[in-house]
Amino acid sequence: MPVISIIGVGYVGLVYGAAFADLGNTVYGVDIDVPKIEQLQRGIVPIYEPGLDELVKRNREAGRLRFTTDYAEAVPQSEFVFICVGTPSTFDGDADMRAVRAAAETIGRYLCGHTIVVNKSTMPIGSGDLVTQLIEQTKPPDATFSVVSNPEFLREGSAVHDVFHPSRIVLGADDRSAAERVAELYRVLNAPVLITDRRSAEMIKYASNAILATRISFINEIAQICDQLGADVKVVAQGMGFDPRIGPHFLEAGIGFGGSCFPKDVRALAYMAEEAGCHPQLLHTVLEINLDQRRRFVRTLQDVLGDLQGRPVALWGLSFKQDTDDIRESPAIDVLRMLLQRGAQVKAYDPVAIPRAAAVVPQAQYVGDPYAAVEGTDALLVATPWNEFKQADLARVKSLMRTPVLLDGRNLYEPTEMRALGFVYRGVGRGI
Prior knowledge:
By secondary structure, the chain is of the alpha/beta class. The protein has 2 domains: 3-196, NAD(P)-binding Rossmann-like Domain (Rossmann fold, 3-Layer(aba) Sandwich), CATH 3.40.50.720; 233-426, NAD(P)-binding Rossmann-like Domain (Rossmann fold). It has 18 helices and 14 strands. It has helices spanning 11-22, 34-41, 52-61, 71-74, 98-109, 127-138, 159-164, 176-186, 198-229, 233-241, 262-275, 281-305, 331-341, 354-360, 370-374, 387-390, 394-400, 415-420; strands spanning 3-7, 26-30, 65-68, 80-83, 114-119, 144-149, 169-173, 193-196, 312-316, 345-349, 365-366, 379-382, 405-408, 424-426. The strands form 2 sheets. The protein has an 8-stranded mixed β-sheet, sandwiched between helices. Strand 1 (3-7), helix 1 and strand 2 form a beta-alpha-beta unit. Helix 1 (11-22) crosses helix 3 and helix 5 runs parallel beside helix 6.
């Protein structure tokens, strides 16, 4: 079985590294974050992802998965080196490629024999050429390599499932034999494989995320109209979803998308389009609607309660979606900040994301129980669709609140049921 190096052991790199090890490969997880590597070497997984702890533990104990900060320990003996470092947004919306550049240059220095370098990070169109140039500048004269683009399509919260049940494997390469070697790593998963050029593979990732984000913003704009005209967006989306040309996915109205992918990838695609002389009006509108949803959510609370200064408010949910502790670009965190800026006294609860949220918004009060969060409050805002919130005892919630106002930012509850319990209820697009 081949030896694989994974450069960058964040959400993507750690899941793929553990999965490749589980398929029988020897895998080195390489990262310059010393505390993170020390945690992993002790068996502590630094992120929350269902099933990941067990996957990492099983393969560490089997000796197939190892962690190091030293490229020299891993890269020379690896047939495949996957670049899985972050590419966050810059101030102007471009993808920050500093980590990719550093990784490529360092990989080059330690190449030995022939190596296939795989761009797994989401990188701007043309990054395969950039990585090739950077490695070429630093590699030993006798080392050879190929660069393959292999975008990831994992969903946080179900990443372990997704890595073993991929919808497709996209591979972009100038060297088809290199792409076919990478395809062999995935062969046991029985997924459709598309081999194309590098730039098309890179664009597939951006276009995929952009269309999903567009669907979310579209249904949120429809929700705004439903609120004004008295229609129910959940019923509207259901009726739309029965059409096979449309389908039901990503048509859930709420307070918008977040996370490490959709916002930055739509921004990056818009930036690339503008740099190429195009006019990406739709992409800009998708982002504007997304930001406006969380502002409208807080304005709705102000419409119901009036001035928020000194008002006790509960917030359920901090992560950007359920089943993850990731708060990057989380709508819930934006809502939390807006509430605090308006003088509200916020008690916040999330099943796993409190430590990360407290590190970036220390002004809120964080509690370890959803019912403790609502006690004595004038409103409850639901910002993340955790199953725990869907199954909560809402009669108990109402009994604990000072004023029974419920703002359902994820449309978890039925308006008629909530009003029958005595709540002043507001959903998103449920027809006021």
